[in-house]
Amino acid sequence: MENFIDIAKRAKKASVKAQGLSAEVKNRGLVAVAKALEEHKTEIFEANKADLEFAKELVEKGELSQATYKRLILDENKMRDMIQGIYDISKLDDPVNKTLLKRELDDGLILQKVSCPIGVLGIIFEARPDVISQISALAIKSSNAVILKGGKESKNTNKTILEIINSALSGVNEFPEGLLNQVYSREDVAEMLKADKYIDLIIPRGGNKLVKFIKENTNIAVLGHADGVCHIFVDETADLELAKRVVLDAKTQYPSACNTVETLLINKEFKQSEELLNAIKNAGVELIFTPESWHKEYSDLKLAVKYVDGVDDAIEHINEYGSGHTESIITENEENAQKFMNLVDSAGVYHNVSTRFADGFRYGFGAEVGISTNKTHARGPVGIDGLVIYKYKLIGNGQIVNDYAKGLKQFHHRDI
Amino acid sequence: MENFIDIAKRAKKASVKAQGLSAEVKNRGLVAVAKALEEHKTEIFEANKADLEFAKELVEKGELSQATYKRLILDENKMRDMIQGIYDISKLDDPVNKTLLKRELDDGLILQKVSCPIGVLGIIFEARPDVISQISALAIKSSNAVILKGGKESKNTNKTILEIINSALSGVNEFPEGLLNQVYSREDVAEMLKADKYIDLIIPRGGNKLVKFIKENTNIAVLGHADGVCHIFVDETADLELAKRVVLDAKTQYPSACNTVETLLINKEFKQSEELLNAIKNAGVELIFTPESWHKEYSDLKLAVKYVDGVDDAIEHINEYGSGHTESIITENEENAQKFMNLVDSAGVYHNVSTRFADGFRYGFGAEVGISTNKTHARGPVGIDGLVIYKYKLIGNGQIVNDYAKGLKQFHHRDI
After folding, report:
1. Which tens digit of pLDDT belongs to each residue from B328-366?
2. C-beta separation of B393 from B112 below 8 A
3. Do A128 and A212 have their domain in common?
4. Domain that holds residue A308
5. What is the pLDDT of residues A331-341, one digit of tens each?
6. Same domain membership, residue B384 and residue B271
7. Which residues make Cβ contacts (< 8 Å) with residue B81, sequence separation at least 6?
8. Which residues in chain B are contacts of A349 at CB distance < 8 A?
């Protein structure tokens, strides 16, 4: 088995070469990958069957949840979505080589800010084998190298899928070897978290234990979210029917999602709170009124409820107990809505809509890298733009700083 | 003495309130600060004198370098620049509340991506007391809270300056208390590095030992650069006079700057390398030809020199030994220049100009937060835009995800 640092070094080299790939070549690679997955799907289903047999034993021994087992299953439908997802990514604009700024600093001295890939991404994910093809496609499109580490339960499926992808890419001219890599052991994860010389960004996709562990054990930048403690604040002037509709959607439409509401804050002056709470209970949701519930992510049909004094109190509660993910105010008072959206310090601040809208596809980003509760780089649902950064190109004909320091020349800083 | 966590909590609260400050109020605050510093400059000079006396003893005991001592001195000229810097920042566009994207997801469902402050910045800096006023002004302008920790050598000066600033702000309506804070001890730094619940970004300004220590000891995002190992590659077709001029400027104009060239790579086929090297030596620069020199930042009149096989070899060397700061190619070959600028993985990639141009003021950013060799968030010279992130506002009238999941409604994603 190759050791991690060798893989990382090769990925770093490949990432440099990938910066030179044209949009046309990258899209050609994506189409080749999609076709190869279609052609070789029987192999993938076989590999998945082997994983499922092993996983079934784990479920029987109580070492794996039924929910995780279900997420491992790769059927015709998921395969079709996986392949369609790659075609969709091939149709996105090239995120690389966009001119973000062009400025003449002085005659013949031109500064350009140009988007470019981040470099090498470390992706750590659980169970779902469709992550492999999605992340590979995003990496190809954004000219980044990746090192993937999936859950051990889907090892065969993951391995087979990446081999098919890499074999397809090797048939497309110019693609550097070592762009897409996979590692399998816990030791590899430990090495990845230390490899800040080679890895530029780590994206964990999985439960909050995984994400927390990673954030606490690396000084490489991490893109993602550990918790999703989302709030809805029902203000004094809320429309009851609208509030019912939104809260029920936010809690029951998909309770295990990270953008599900976990705490309902109700303005003490709201006259119809009993009707609202009854409607929620009748939908099978358990209501919890203890302070211990305020920072909990239930991911289940449970909802913390707290009465607050008004919009200021709601804002304070959310900024103290929330996770900075997504919060919504239900109100007919425009001023309170503005205040809430300005002062709640979360990636998503909504007015009269369900928190469940926090999602890259719903925002129209085409493909989603993940949802970030970071305060730097990228926040909220992150599209492929979150996988690029920029560099400054400066082109001149012998200019030196001394001429400007001495006052012989002056900058004129004209955007062009 | 207040403990660090209490200061951090207060800063976090102040940062939320600061999100509500209008551009007009912030600029009024900045003008008040500039005027107060002008009015109280005698106090500041007195405090600085006390610091200098203490520092002089340290210099005599050999515990402080003469260079650091010089940087401590606050004279009329520096004070004038400090105050002018604040007026300049007051004239910049408000970086907060810019609409970066406005999209109708469906009828009556409007998504807005709006710039907003990062939150609480931890600033750790050495010696130079003018950092206090500059960072305070940038924080006010960008609606961020800060916790500053300066070098102990300038403690009196730093304390006096921040007290004057805070006193000026307290006279301007709406400014939250606790926006600008200062701590003084090493223990405070240790606490800051652990306080990821309160601090959103750490910006170290100082030597590479300081920056390295911080990067290795926190999992909070860090903006900055440890090393500045910049390269110039003189290609086969370089113009000799242009090469001399650029290399001499890059090495001798200000040798201790981070954007000074440290390694000169010369194409073996370049016929006039002897003349070039002689010109550099005649300017008092020591040339070093050993591999040990390839990753060194001399910050002095010393230059590592290596012959390479061509542009590919130069790119490989830089990506292996460089620090991702700034590199320049001297060539008349347009194709090589393009290749170099595309494949060198650094914040600044230049053609026929001095590396010394890597600077926020020279790029026309108005004010500089620092120079970043990060691969996420902000790269290269960072202006005030590096102190903001964004949030998503979603405004509707009762929309729920279930309608879209069931196909009863469709997104139309139209930018408006």
Report:
1. 999 999 999 999 999 999 999 999 999 999 999 999 998
2. yes
3. yes
4. 230-357
5. 999 999 999 99
6. no
7. B130
8. 391-394
